[in-house]
Amino acid sequence: MNAPRSHAFKPEAAKALDDHDLQHALSKIQDLLVGGRRRAVDALPEFGALRDAGAAIKDHTIVHLDLYLERFADEVEKLGGHVHFAATDKDACDAVLKICRDAGARTVAKSKSMVTEEIGLNAALEGAGIRPVETDLGEYIIQLRHEQPSHIIAPAVHLGRAQIEEAFRDNHRNLPDGRKIDEPAELLAEARTVLRSQFLAADVGITGANFLVAESGSAFVVTNEGNADLSMTLPDTHIVLTGIEKLVPTLDDALVMLRLLVRSATGQPATGYTTLITGPRREGDLDGPRNFHVVLVDNGRSRLLGSRNQAMLRCIRCSACMNHCPVYGAVGGHAYGWVYPGPMGSVLTPNFVGLHEARDLPNASTFCGRCESVCPVKIPLPQLMRNLREEQFEAGDVASSQRWALRLWAAFATRPRLYRMASRLGARVLRQAGGRRSKLAKVPLAEGWTAHRDLPAPEGKTFTEQWKRGVR
């Protein structure tokens, strides 16, 4: 497993807020991903009904996960493939390493897969003398820079063109000094030139899977670059490495999920490449792998079954929650300290690496509710984060200052007259302090907020005063 640094969220977030290049890069998300999703959803009147259907499909599959796992494994093996169940990250890496050794692999072509990041597969391959090559452009750039992805579908979204050009010049030794490569088309052409030979040299191809279909033993892989198709068809051995929660019962179910995934992830009706692979090459096929393996990773997922956080297993890794999250939009993905950032990471990471290790993440939310409102499978992310906060409090894993603050707030909240008096007085003081600007540059006990932005001063009547007057 990639070593988590989720306990360092607060200092990493503070560093990110002061990083002007990062702030500029993060601004791209609003137009490209948030705007794209909005336009795609507006163009599909039945999107709300699809969300209900998608949530129901995932809930049904989760309840019967053992049965669908067995059905999927049986179908893959009927086709001549092999299924490997991995309880832990180490088991998953060991399974992949054995397949690679049996194939005599020296080079592995990898398509983008968050599960490979989760289990630390690249480090395991390198430790065994096998060279992994990321073939997704964003992942390739991240690999050159020895970084983790900062976003699950746009791994290099935190980087500018100059940083990408620098990574190419540092690693592509045959690149002439005078050749310009700071435009997207030029960067893409340079990457394609280098990666083409890697596809041809690879002994094994590794991809993730967006969905697994139990009734047919098939895997859906969705990309916009086509690199996954080359990774799964050119090498003699293809490994699908993915989580056990990616299962759906039927092809019809998978098509429902695809309509939700693509619009939520990139704002497209369909991606450039949607590939369905079903087993190894058969007689008469012109291409495809002779050896086909599926490694199904648990690594903490089964602990969610039957828990208050079970709904997180619906997640289809579309990134809509993080794209719309004001916290992610301010600090980016690296501040979260592991492979899953944003609201989905604030639930997944504590469940996968431990709540104490990821103690800041359930609190890295304003609870504005945007994540739940855009989730294509209707995961109640704010409630799941509340569940984790409650677990922290019950375990005593909360700073004493927070406990005293909660006790103080409870003292007022349980005494309505005192609460109304204090809220009126506080609003009046803050209003006066805000002056003509109606903003406050500094507020006692709120330095974390005002260090990077002004706090709007209260305006008008308090909520309880307006409620009493019948304002709804």
UniProtKB/TrEMBL annotation:
It comes from the Bacteria. It holds the Pfam family LutB_C. Transmembrane segments: none annotated. Keywords: 4Fe-4S, Electron transport, Iron, Iron-sulfur, Metal-binding, Repeat, Transport. InterPro entries: 4Fe4S_Fe-S-bd (IPR017896), 4Fe4S_Fe_S_CS (IPR017900), FTHF_cligase-like_sf (IPR024185), Helical_ferredxn (IPR009051), LUD_dom (IPR003741), LutB/LldF (IPR004452), LutB_C (IPR024569), NagB/RpiA_transferase-like (IPR037171). One of its GO terms (molecular function) is metal ion binding. PROSITE patterns: 4FE4S_FER_1 (PS00198), 4FE4S_FER_2 (PS51379). The keyword Manganese does not apply. Residues 304-336 form the 4Fe-4S ferredoxin-type domain. GO terms for biological process: lactate metabolic process. PANTHER family: LACTATE UTILIZATION PROTEIN B (PTHR47153). NCBIfam families: LutB/LldF family L-lactate oxidation iron-sulfur protein (TIGR00273). This is L-lactate dehydrogenase complex protein LldF. It comes from Faunimonas pinastri.
